[in-house]
Design brief:
alpha/beta; five-stranded parallel β-sheet; two-stranded antiparallel sheet; 7 strands; about 20% strand
């Protein structure tokens, strides 16, 4: 999996930032797949940082029984990450529509 995927964006389940927050509060893990510099600028509070390029090697850090919501800056990389997780056997995966840009616009909690 490349850090900057090419080709058509995969079709994966999407959730809004508000839905992602509710699901996170109910136990879903939010996985931010952006690069380190982006993560340091601000990220979803409580998210786990696993850059897209390292996701295949770090699957063991996630619980396949736990719901996973992937997030990036705008929603493209997170769709590729969600697709990879679904293909790796994670049954409850979605991508957050609009990424951290939408999350921040909606005033949801951000950490630095």
């Amino acid at each position: 999996m490349a850090a900057h995927p090419t080709g058509p964006r995969p079709v994966v389940p999407e959730v809004t930032p508000a839905e992602a927050k509710v699901r996170q509060d109910q136990g879903a893990v939010v996985v931010d797949v952006r690069e380190a510099e982006e993560w340091q600028e601000g990220h979803v509070s409580g998210a786990v940082h696993i850059p897209l390029a390292t996701l295949p090697q770090r699957l063991h850090q996630l619980d396949p029984q736990q719901e996973v919501i992937t997030v990036c800056r705008g929603g493209n990389r997170s769709a590729f990450a969600a697709d990879a997780l679904l293909k790796a056997g994670f049954p409850r995966v979605s991508s957050m529509a609009g990424g951290t840009l939408a999350w921040t616009e909606q005033g949801l909690p951000v950490s630095k």
